[in-house]
Design a protein that fits this description.
Shape: globular
Structural class: alpha+beta
Radius of gyration: 15 Å
Number of strands: 5
Largest sheet: 5 strands, antiparallel
Number of helices: 3
Order of helices and strands: EHHEEHEE
Length: 135
């Protein structure tokens, strides 16, 4: 059974500092590996930025759970329907000056996570991201 470590709702980027402090407290309590904090912060920052800039949403709700050897990050937002997993992937083989703008943040999220699952539930986007706990 998963253990819920944290539930937090963000409305503005400046709230990322408070989230960082809460994650540090989980590390201090031995509930979250320190090695995952920066990955979680990058993911949440990217999702919040995209939501506020492009998604038309007003909040990003996150829930952090630990189950066995993984951390699950469940994200829910009230933005327009958008499945980031079906977004066209950027061609990273092209020289930077020839690449289309955008898509690198989602690419980074995919790189940092082991599994991803998206679904739309009522008026909410839901994204479940799984991060393996480093050994």
């Amino acid at each position: 059974m998963p253990q819920t470590l944290l539930q937090y709702r963000l409305y503005r980027p400046r709230e990322l500092d408070d989230l960082s402090a809460r994650l540090a407290a989980l590390v201090e309590a031995g509930e979250l590996p320190e090695a995952l904090v920066s990955d979680i912060m990058v993911i949440v920052d990217e999702l919040l930025s995209n939501l506020l800039k492009y998604g038309g949403g007003s909040f990003l709700n996150i829930e952090l759970q630990r189950e066995n050897e993984t951390i699950e990050l469940l994200c829910r937002d009230d933005g327009s329907p958008f499945n980031p997993l079906k977004n066209e992937r950027p061609n990273l083989d092209l020289p930077i000056e020839q690449r289309e703008i955008g898509g690198l943040g989602i690419e980074l999220i995919l790189t940092l996570t082991a599994r991803q699952h998206y679904w739309r539930e009522r008026e909410y986007n839901r994204l479940l991201l799984t991060l393996p706990i480093p050994q």
